[in-house]
Design goal:
It is built from 9 helices and 24 strands. The chain has 424 residues and is an alpha+beta fold.
Length: 424
């Protein structure tokens, strides 16, 4: 049977916009039994918009011949163009189209489709964030300005607790289970999940986590670096599926490590960078060579809630600059010649006026080219994104957890580049 002759075809193609993206996402994140999806309840009735548009279509005299002509166009589309076209669709659209037929639903495990996806230029990252007192997180798509609320349904019931996103690489996110002290790697889009073997570094003694990919894509494997304050560190390799102890830190790195845990690590090629507090600066580790390096770089004065960020190989610093009652978010770039911070941008003054006289705290929920910043005080709870390349500030729609009542404060998050075919 041709794909376009499938009985689901007419509803999927001609009525695809009759439901909201959130409705379709809830439906097809669990579409079929492929992968690790859990079946969702079907939509029980069409929306008011659907009924209105259907009535409007009848009154406009749309003929069955028009529909037949459109079907004929799709029917003649060469088979070898299906996967290249679908690979370039927005992710939300792809999840809707998975309900067309079993063949499209199986694309997630197709090697050829994975190759087509790898050829598509990487767009802005998405953000995965967790909430206080919530067992599931939320994902934000900045291109569509949409929030999605998936549940990691592949966890055993006893482990349905608050999972904190602590690192990411490619389309994968590393989570810390703060109650059981376990690490997990997950593809938030497809819910592919893997629990990592038990590690010897004690997570409850405060440890930093960094993640890189092997080569140019996550398909060739990934590595996770776990660093404790006492300089004990381990590396997990997804290829060998085990933890290793490469050795000790060099004597010129001051111990114990005073890592600034409010700032997530950043990765540039094979090197991970962690913010250090005493002395102020950066500690880096090259996954390829196994070399540790410490850079002593004084932070700008009057700076609070600072965090590292990266964009196209550049290392940046983001923080709240507070003087008297005035507060502003500033961006600095690390100069390669002088190893000093140079201010390159700051939030527009008209936005900063909202912070005047308020005790504002900032949390960075993603630091990969496109930043997401959570700004909160007693009188304010705001999310904004900052595009490092275009220097554009954008306010983010409020994130309301489904059935969660009032708006939640966001405490942890990370940026990840969405990928449909990467398995944990």
């Amino acid at each position: 049977m041709n794909i376009c002759d499938h009985p689901f075809h007419r509803r999927s193609f001609f009525d695809i916009d009759d439901y909201s993206v959130d409705d379709f996402y809830s439906l097809v994140m669990a579409a079929g039994k492929s992968g690790s999806f859990r079946m969702a309840e079907p939509l029980k009735h069409p929306s008011k918009k659907f009924r209105r548009d259907r009535s409007r279509g009848k009154s406009s005299g749309r003929s069955s011949r028009d529909e037949a002509m459109e079907q004929q166009i799709w029917k003649d589309l060469p088979e070898d163009l299906f996967e290249p076209v679908i690979a370039r669709l927005p992710f939300a659209t792809f999840f809707r189209f998975r309900s067309v037929c079993q063949r499209w639903n199986s694309l997630l495990t197709s090697q050829s489709f994975s190759q087509h996806c790898a050829q598509v230029p990487r767009a802005n990252p998405w953000f995965y964030i967790s909430h206080e007192h919530a067992n599931s997180g939320s994902m934000y798509d900045p291109s569509m300005k949409k929030w999605y609320h998936p549940t990691i349904s592949t966890l055993p019931a006893k482990l349905m607790v608050l999972l904190l996103p602590v690192a990411s690489a490619g389309g994968l996110v590393c989570f810390l289970d703060i109650y059981h002290q376990n690490l997990y790697v997950c593809n938030p889009l497809t819910q592919s999940l893997k629990e990592l073997p038990t590690q010897s570094v004690r997570l409850w003694s405060r440890a930093a986590v960094g993640m890189t990919v092997n080569g140019n894509s996550t398909g060739t494997g990934y590595k996770i670096l776990l660093v404790g304050c006492d300089a004990e560190y381990q590396i997990y390799d997804s290829v060998t599926k085990s933890w290793s102890h490469p050795g000790n830190m060099p004597a010129d790195i001051k111990l114990p490590l005073s890592l600034y845990f409010r700032s997530q690590a950043i990765s540039i090629d094979s090197t991970l960078y962690f913010m250090h507090s005493d002395p102020e600066g950066i500690v880096s580790y090259d996954m390829a060579t196994g070399v540790w390096t410490q850079y002593i770089i004084p932070a700008p004065s009057d700076l609070t809630d600072r965090t590292l960020a990266e964009c196209d190989g550049r290392i940046l610093l983001v923080g709240l600059l507070t003087k008297n009652a005035a507060t502003c978010i500033c961006i600095w770039e690390l100069q390669k010649m002088t190893f000093l911070w140079k201010e390159v941008d700051r939030m527009p003054n008209v936005w900063c006026l909202d912070f005047y006289g308020k005790h504002v705290r900032m949390t960075c929920l993603g630091n990969k080219g496109l930043l997401m910043l959570s700004l909160r005080s007693r009188q304010m709870n705001r999310l904004v994104t900052y595009n490092i390349a275009s220097r554009e500030w954008v306010k983010v729609p409020s994130c309301v957890v489904p059935h969660g009542g009032k708006r939640q404060w966001i405490t942890h998050g990370t940026a990840f580049y969405p990928c449909l075919t990467i398995m944990a």
